[in-house]
Amino acid sequence: MFSIGSSHIEHHLLQSSEKSGVVASSYTYSFQFSTTFDHESGAPFEPPSGGPSNDVASAPKPLSPYEKYLTNCASKLKPAECGKQIFSGVFVGNQIISDYCCHSLVNDVGKSCHYDLTRNALQWPAYAKNKTEILKRNDKVWNDCIAVRPILP
To answer: What percent of the chain stands above pLDDT 70?
Structure first.
């Protein structure tokens, strides 16, 4: 299952359920929409009805140091609209990034975090199949953003 969605910025990934064999990821790069996919079929994932599970195996595992690093990276991008713009620009290719969001990406997130967040998302089949195009768009978003003039006070 791959999930994107939140009203705040977080990054949680590789939470596994031993019972179902599903690897789950909640990847929020300041997104306010929510989409959940079965990572193998790409089909929308519908959680089982009947309330929360009492299955201990489905509890999330603590974040690794790298996952904490990615969480910190994603938390630097504000506001939420900027995450939507950058995500669409990189993963969909149908978004022009506003000057404000470019400044946040360049000055607050930085190149290493931007690239690491993208590379991490590429581990999921829904994105891996378009890896070359996504990496080109990732470069384009970054290069377009560093060319934006500073916002004057």
So the answer is: 60
